[in-house]
Structures are given as structure tokens and as C-alpha cells.
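The instructor's notes for this session suggest beginning with a concrete chain rather than abstract definitions. Hand out the sequence below and ask the class to guess, before any prediction is shown, which regions might be ordered.
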Amino acid sequence: MPRETALELEKYREYLGLLGRMQLDDQLAGKVDVSGVVQLTLFEAGKNGWKEQAEDKRLSWLRRVFANNLLDEIRRFRTQARDVERERSIEQTLEKSADRLNCWLASGYSTPSQTSGPCGRATETGNGAGISLSCSTTSD
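After discussion, reveal the predicted structure:
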């Protein structure tokens, strides 16, 4: 893409980013990479018709390209394996880890290598780089 075209399109980067963030609901806002969609839009616009558009039609054309790319990204996100059920599974795993850690902390022992009554045995792994805890009082 010619340098002058790239510089001209660069003027719209922040505008498109703001426009994109305003269109996403809270659930998608943290998931969809708006800056990546903006980058793709600017690249496509520079390669596929920016200069061919009449001056007064360029911005609406650029918004249309951006809207299509944003919709594609949202569709891709919704159809990927990164669904809500998988996220819950990670949250449950973290919750169980936190429960085991809380159990160990509540036991009152000062080191993880000490036996901890109701929490089972807390042991150090290998070279002491990590801790493996098991707690018999956790609920699933």
C-alpha cells in the first residue's frame, strides 16, 4: 500500500476503535480484539479500494468495511471452542485450588511440608519449587 494511503487511513484508527468498543456488550468487550479488527480494516481498505472511493463516500465505506470485519470477529468468537461452559470449567478449577489453599492456611501450620490435620498432607514438589495440596474437606 502506498505510504500516503497508509498515512491517510491512519487518521481513522482511533475513531474506528472507539466505534467498535461502543458496539460491544460487556460480555464481548473483553473477548473481541477491537484493535485487531481496526488493523485488519485499515489494511483491507488500503489494498482494496480506498483510493477508488469518492472523497465524500470514503468514511461511510470504511465504516461498512469495519462493521463487516467486526461482525466476522464476533461470529468467529461465538463459534469457537472458547464457549462459556469451558470458561466455567476454568473458574471451577481455580475455585477448587483456592479452597485447598484456604484449607491449608486455616490449618495454622507455618510450612507446607508439615502435616495438616483435616486438609490431608501438604507436600513440596521436587526441588521445592511448587506446593501440592490436598484437602479432604473441599466440596465439589
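Then share the key points. Residues 120-140 have pLDDT under 50 and may be disordered. Residues 84-106 form the longest helix (23 residues).
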